[in-house]
């Protein structure tokens, strides 16, 4: 027996975790600084951790009231109707729900390159095809409506990431609005705001009031520190938001995630400290790394290490050579080859101590790797 044709499918390549790397190198996981997956440097919201503990014994029940309460709290925080909040297991899960709701077989989605792998993966699972638009390194990955419209060909869903991971650039609200305006009526523009808390710019939620063709993705994985719980949501236009009830997996967000999410939403102190730390670390990375960096609105900075040529033979590129070398010195950063940026690494902002250590190690590696 064979499952269906998977020739267009790919496997998601996550940033490497601490246990995996430590095991491979025969070292103590505690001795590593992990700055490869844009996780929260300060841990999880303490209020969320308390909530998980308090409700642990309640997991014999299906999450009914906790889901309703969380959706209402999120809706209230954005001044939306509850139907407009599509709760899901992670932002990734929300992408699946969106594609279930939007795509007919053969519909296309338009995604950025570099970009986030799961848009295309999810679209393909839902019988969609994938086209790409390019953000240009030479242009500092500038995000304008024209950059997208140049490649646009009537796709059903168009993805924008703002702030963009791994590059850090943002698309101004006015440009998102123009993009929505100039694409077809039946094209939905999805703005992925996984990192919006770290940015100085306003959320594109402002566009939801007037438009039926913009949706916004948010997650609890980054600023709230709940990546391990899998919790995210899509904000959708009022006119068709009720479709969620027909496409979602029942109880897909678990009881403890809902309780933790509710607690985290009111943990302003934690989010404020998280954002302040990330902004400090961003500045520190820009200022002290001995390689060109790109402006970032997120909790990470993209670094151009093309000056560092791989030392060995084989197909290794500069990004993976530098990432391998920093890893041997106990600092795990993201090699950006899988994003289509083989000459770059992405460094997640850490605590002050972690960030200083990362800079020291990356600079030492850059100084050692022979010039091209
Ligand atoms: C982290 C991230 C998400 C959401 O991830 P989840 O953990 O599934 O919520 C979405 N888009 C981008 C670009 C991300 O980096």
UniProtKB/TrEMBL annotation:
CDD domains: AAT_like
Pfam families tied to this protein: Aminotran_1_2
Annotated keywords: Amino-acid biosynthesis, Aminotransferase, Histidine biosynthesis, Pyridoxal phosphate, Transferase
Catalytic activities: L-histidinol phosphate + 2-oxoglutarate = 3-(imidazol-4-yl)-2-oxopropyl phosphate + L-glutamate
The UniProt record lists the keyword Ribonucleoprotein: no
Coiled coil regions in record: none
GO BP annotations, alphabetical order: L-histidine biosynthetic process
NCBIfam families to which the protein is assigned, alphabetical: hisC (TIGR01141)
Similarity-based family: Belongs to the class-II pyridoxal-phosphate-dependent aminotransferase family. Histidinol-phosphate aminotransferase subfamily.
Full protein name: Histidinol-phosphate aminotransferase
